[in-house]
Amino acid sequence: MPSRFAAIATLVACLAGSPWATAGQKSPYWPGLDRLEQDTQRLDVSSGEIFRRAHELAGIEPSRAGGQAGQLNFPDTQKRLSRSPVDILLRRIGLPASQGFVEASLKAQPAPQATAIVIESGSFSLEDVRQVLQTKGFDDYLEKGPEGYVAHRPIFIWTGGALKIGPGERLAVDGSQGAFVVNTGVLEIDGAYLGVTGAKNSGFRPFLLTTFGGATLVSRSEITGLGFPGFLEGSGVAFTHQQFSSSVTGSILKDNIFKDGAGVALAGVSGLDIVGNRFVDGPQTAVLVKAARNVRIADNIVSQRSGTHAIKVTDGSSHLDISHNIIIGSPGNGIFVDGGSTEVRISDNLVGRSRLTGISVDGAACVAIERNVVLANLSRGIAMRSVLNGNVEKNDLLGNASAGLAISGQFEHSSLRVSHNNFVNNRFGLSGSAVGEVSLLANDFSRQLPRVADGDFATNLGGLLEFAASDQPGEFKIKATVPTAPDDFSQFSAVDFSACIAKKGP
């Protein structure tokens, strides 16, 4: 396999004769990217093969670090299964939920007093659940047919209970009966299928929600058709208010396929790995992270043609690692970080052909963007707006339809370090407005000439090029006027923000 340096050199050679007007478009200049984009849409092409081609194209490969260690802690207690009214169960878990979520879920039920399956204690398989329901005279709650199991009622896994769906098993959740799955205990889906049947035209679709102390492990499985539009809790696979878990390990999503609506959403979660998954044909953000901590999003392949962003981090999330992902053709930004998020590292990703910006950061602190290949996006390659303690280092910014790197609206007393980046054939290399203080070190603009700079950077272009040509040690610093209005840090967590500004760098 070629080294990343060799791969980038080859890609640069292909770009050398390419006018910026073709950036982001299907063209002879992007044969490798065209093929890679097509392959990400095809589930008959393995993840390993896609990463192999991404390595050939741009030197990007998976981290191969795997998910969190440890096993789920399955309860060794007496098995107990019961029924309970759906409205009582939903209201017990729905107090902190999105406005209207409980009401919309109840509206989808076939009757006001509809009941759900409740795993109260002990560990169950799907067959265990079916047999217990059969002995109680409720055969129609969970049926078994030639294609697998069909749940016609919601399933609640309560604290102290567990459900295992094992290799080769299939569970379809009946949307026409308002069915879904809620886990506050332990759920394992390994080598299985979780999908929907009978979805109505009302807009309701089944979902899988893990909340409170629940722990969920989904691995080597296919998740299809899940997702209740309009509510974070109704995302294909959602995790909320999960800071404390009774399991010995946090939740993990590893080596799965999510398609036809099924995305992943986190809110109020601490400690979760999303590793090695594929997201195809989703109508919304593939991975949404809100007010979460210690989350790792790595080795995933995201290819979706509708919806919003591929990966979004917001609402004061902190300590995130977004690395070694392949993101092609995002309908919005490839990776979007905003809302006072802190301590976010975005590294070693391939982000191409986003309809907006490849990597966009707006209103965040201590953000490091390192060693990414950002190419042929229909707007900017990387955008940094109102970022405190930011670092943009060793990225390859190639053929983006606007600036390779755009900086704007910086805080008055913040600085941004831009070093060792490779700018090739973007419409502009650097673009800036109210950039504050920017330190530039050892960036390569040799294949970006003559469109090196725009905005605030254009007035400093002569000094920058002279400094770069002189081989002087140190950094070239630019300081531009920022708005006189006081900086607004209210969106940040006081604790995380204080820790961030105490650091010397991201």
UniProtKB/TrEMBL annotation:
Right handed beta helix domain ranges (all copies): 242-350
Assigned keywords, A-Z: Plasmid, Signal
UniProt keyword annotation of ATP-binding present: no
InterPro entries: Beta_helix, PbH1, Pectin_lyas_fold, Pectin_lyase_fold/virulence
Signal peptide extent: 1-23
UniProt cross-references to Pfam families, sorted A to Z: Beta_helix
The protein, known as: Right handed beta helix domain-containing protein
The species this protein was found in: Rhizobium favelukesii
